[in-house]
Specification:
Elements lengths: L5 H11 L2 E3 L11 E3 L1 H20 L4 E3 L5 E2 L1 H6 L2 H4 L1 E6 L6 E3 L20 E4 L2 E4 L9 E4 L4 H6 L1 H8 L5 E10 L14 E11 L4 H18 L7 E5 L11 E9 L2 E12 L1 H5 L25 E3 L4 E3 L2 E8 H12 E5 L5 E5 L10 E5 L5 H15 L6 E3 L5 H11 L3 E5 L1 H5 L4 E6 L5 E5 H13 L1
Parallel strand pairs: 3-10, 20-21, 20-22
Antiparallel strand pairs: 1-2, 4-9, 5-6, 5-7, 8-9, 10-11, 11-17, 12-13, 13-14, 14-17, 15-16, 18-19, 22-23, 23-24
Helix pairs in contact: 2-9
């Protein structure tokens, strides 16, 4: 089939309940989306896979869930107040606003006019008032990234866990950026979710760890179903690096709208910990540590071998959850022509990502015995812990199969007259990808499915 288009994904997401435009009944809020019944399952499954890989399967990472509201000084000393900007232009003719670096041939992408304002910096952070009185001083920001809370909580995590470098702190959470031109569905939005790891290493080992994390993250995305030929590694040019970065790799993916960043892996050196700690001459901190009289925390660790304190360098793999969802949907979306000439849409998601793991389908919903048996089987399968099991009682077996193909359900279990009339009781199981069907004893069903999903 041809490459998946954005129109195909948007249509599927709305039709089947993956993603909806926020406040759609009022015309929508640009750059803000809501995840529907199936979308939240897919999103949670992707986050669970990341957390399992980063925290549970490693012995050198701890987790954190920090507040969204962020103290102004955190973002002042991190450099965000001064540098977290995009160049903004206005079209004098149609009044449209756009990023200057997205303008081609000096023309407004909306009306084609060349009468544009000079670019000016636009800070992307959302500001909000804290407390009952708005006087211009009592404000905070909605965090533009999850990373800064990890840095400011570094000492508390070290003190409470006795972790030694190298180790990491992982976090999944919402971030907010007031994008000038949100675009391409959930790829670039104003409210989004990040999966970030800050991995603290000894200076001098940072480049080696940077390479290790690049390889590990590419492998993980392949395990989520992304084909190697659709993944690209782009090393950011020195002049394009973020203010905190020594070196950055972008893991790029072939999205419907083009090849763009899926995850960034940055070497942040000691920039953040240094900027958040007070210079302590008696501790022998590195020259990179800047004076910060507003922070009493010593964000450093002690080297038992060299008998001195040092500020760790940081390797940061940072992935967008929403971009991850878009990537796995892009890769999984498949249109097949069946022998009878019909077109079948199927989401060939990895089993662990599928929103619904098993659909239990009663052949006749007006038959009390079949319905009772279907409920019993559903409840039995829920106890296996494989994930969401859905009772699909639409009443038409063909339409039920097509629906679950479209939403990526790996296995359908059909309860029919043979199930309730013969002993031992059996059901029909149908494979999503091959459409192959076979009968299996109900008593063997739970073990069979455990092997399918927990292998």
């Amino acid at each position: 089939m041809a490459a998946t288009s954005m129109d195909q994904l948007v249509s599927l997401c709305k039709r089947r309940g993956f993603i909806f435009q926020n406040a759609d009944i009022y015309g929508g809020l640009q750059g803000v989306y809501d995840y529907g019944p199936l979308g939240i399952e897919l999103k949670n499954n992707l986050k669970a896979a990341w957390w399992r890989s980063m925290v549970y399967e490693r012995d050198d990472v701890e987790g954190l869930d920090a507040a969204i509201l962020t103290h102004r000084k955190v973002l002042q000393y991190s450099g965000h107040e001064a540098t977290f900007t995009d160049p903004l232009c206005d079209c004098k003719k149609c009044k449209a606003r756009m990023r200057a670096d997205h303008i081609k041939d000096g023309k407004c992408p909306n009306c084609g006019s060349t009468d544009l304002t000079e670019p000016r910096p636009f800070n992307l952070m959302f500001k909000t008032t804290v407390g009952p009185i708005e006087d211009g001083t009592n404000y905070a920001y909605l965090r533009p990234e999850t990373a800064q809370a990890i840095f400011t909580q570094f000492k508390n995590v070290v003190d409470s866990t006795s972790r030694k470098v190298p180790f990491g702190i992982a976090q999944i959470g919402k971030s907010f950026r007031n994008e000038i031109t949100p675009r391409n569905f959930v790829f670039r939005v104003r409210e989004f979710e990040q999966m970030e790891l800050e991995f603290f290493v000894k200076p001098g080992t940072d480049e080696e760890w940077h390479e290790k994390w690049k390889e590990a993250r590419v492998k993980w995305w392949e395990e989520q179903g992304l084909k190697p030929e659709n993944i690209h590694i782009h090393k950011i040019a020195k002049e394009d690096l973020a203010h905190y970065s020594k070196a950055t790799y972008d893991i790029e993916f072939q999205f419907p709208h083009g090849v763009e960043e899926l995850e960034g892996i940055a070497n942040r050196t000691d920039y953040d910990l240094g900027n958040h700690t007070r210079y302590q001459n008696e501790l022998g901190l590195t020259a990179h540590v800047h004076e910060n009289k507003d922070s009493e925390a010593k964000l450093a660790v002690f080297d038992d071998q060299e008998k001195k304190w040092f500020v760790p360098f940081v390797i940061e793999p940072s992935a967008g959850v929403d971009r991850g969802v878009l990537a796995v949907l892009t890769e999984a979306y498949t249109e097949e022509t069946l022998p009878n000439g019909e077109t079948r849409i199927v989401l060939k998601l990895k089993k662990h990502l599928a929103p619904v793991k098993v659909a239990v389908i009663p052949l006749k919903r007006n038959n009390p015995d079949i319905m009772q048996k279907a409920h019993e089987i559903k409840n039995m399968l829920l106890k296996t812990g494989i994930g969401r099991v859905m009772l699909e009682d639409s009443g038409n077996i063909g339409k039920a199969y097509r629906r679950h193909d479209e939403i990526g359900t790996p296995i359908c279990v059909t309860v029919d007259f043979e199930t309730i009339e013969k002993q031992p009781a059996t059901v029909t199981i149908r494979d999503r990808d091959t459409m192959a069907q076979e009968r299996i004893a109900v008593d063997e069903l739970a073990d069979y499915l455990k092997k399918q999903f927990m292998a």
